[in-house]
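Support reply, case 0932

Customer input (verbatim):
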Amino acid sequence: MAKIQAPVQKGDIVHVTVADLTHEGKGVAKVDGYPLFIEGVLPGETGEIQVTKLNKGYGFARLIRLDKASQERVEPPCPVYDECGGCQVQHLSYAGQMDMKYNQVRNVIDRIAKLPDVPVHPVLGLEDPWRYRNKAQVPVGLSAEGRIVAGFFKKRSHDIIDMTECLIQHTESDVIIQKVKDVCAANGVMPYDEGRHKGVLRHVMARIGYQTGEKMAVLITRTNEIPNREAIIEGIRQAIPDITSIVQNVNAEKTNVVFGNVTRTLFGEDVIYDTIGDIKFAISARSFYQVNPVQTEVLYNKALEYAQLTGEETVIDAYCGIGTISLFLARKAKQVYGVEIVPQAIEDARKNAELNGIKNAYFEAGKAEEVIPAWYKQGIKPDVIMVDPPRKGCDEALLETILKMKPSRVVYVSCNPGTLARDLRVLEDGGYKTREVQPVDMFPQTVHVEAVAVLDLL
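Our regenerated output:
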């Protein structure tokens, strides 16, 4: 199909009606069939926009004046919402966000998976869509006036917005970040200068045990030594008397990657603990652990329901992480096998199994698409395969392996509806039938949505 030539020029000001939202939360308006993407507008709204960029087939614009607002428009409560890129849809009511996320999933199931008859249920959302994140990780820098600042980057830049609070983070995370920043500033610790690769403190991270209340502060430094280290440890302990753990991670590389390879505990415990349902997890500074534990329980309970376990099944959990889903499944299955590419995550999974007295879960480090076929050759024949892949979806070789192994059921947990839909189509073509899809809102105020789908072997 030929690309539509732009009927507008860069800099043109035009009056438009917004027709839709993209999966990134941008409004879509068309001028003579040519789509323009506009930040901060909602479907049904009208107003004047200025064209900022033109590509073949589509362009970008910014809002100049809103003439008619949507009934779903709300005033964003965050004072830096317009500058910060952390949230994308605070200006949309929570009911509107639920509709947007439902439509996002329904659209790709229809268009990419070509499954218009498969039920997509209403999104399972949070009663209170704020303060849900149990982990905060912010860069540290110097302001123009020479003050230490800590916060998120401005949109499309590496300029740090100095923030005292973030409305989607746990309130205790805000406290930890501010106190650590103040204590480091008082003790002469210079923040990292990205351009010159100088300075000490690169990032501050806070982790909170949502159910236990345990707290961890992580100082990510460029240097092995921290100036006035003992005074800083004492200062943080005085400022946060109930802190469970103070950890240093060293990243001496010139990189955008946050963590380095060296981690040491400066005070207290190496880990904090939290629970999801009745399962306890040990969380280290670098552990992958779901950032919204309340909705994680909702998501995993749905995955468990879809697995339909009776206690007699062998289950494979591909992309098992630190064993979060595996341990949920192990309580109801005969045997669970978990695989994950990150060796540290597998170590954590084994420790978490031991922590909970779970003996019917086996974990192995490696690529799912290599380990699972090896298991199959060893005679491991799963009744259920659970997949929870990264945003890029399942590896093609893993999908081929699933089709060869022919488990009676596949439960697919997804953080990207587009790749979920693509993979469902592959599994459908290989002899599976998608029964239903349940979206879950893990990240209110953002455009992201998770979904869990269940497929049966025909």
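We compared this against your earlier run and they match. Two observations from our side: The radius of gyration is 24 Å. The longest strand covers residues 58-68. Please reopen the case if you see a mismatch on your end.
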